[in-house]
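Pilot study result, target chain (74 residues):
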Amino acid sequence: MRRSFFEFLMTLRNAESVEPDAQFANNAFHDQSFPKQETDYEKLSEYLELNAGYLPSMTIFDEIYEKYQDTDRK
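Predicted structure:
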C-alpha cells in the first residue's frame, strides 16, 4: 500500500536543519489540519496554497512531491 505524502514528508524532519525540505516537514508536523492521509498532488497543493503560510514557496512542495513519486516507483 502506498504511503501518504505526509508520511513521506515526515522522513525529512530535522529540527536542527535550516534546509527548506526539513523546515517544511517540521512545520507540517505541527499543522493539525494537514491532510495526513492524502496522496493526490492537486488536493495537497490546494490545501497548501490556502492554508500553509509556513511554506515560503510552492516550489519546495513541488520538488518534495516529485521525490515522493520517485520513491513510489522504486
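One observation from the pilot: The two ends are 13 Å apart (CA to CA). A full batch analysis is planned for the follow-on phase.
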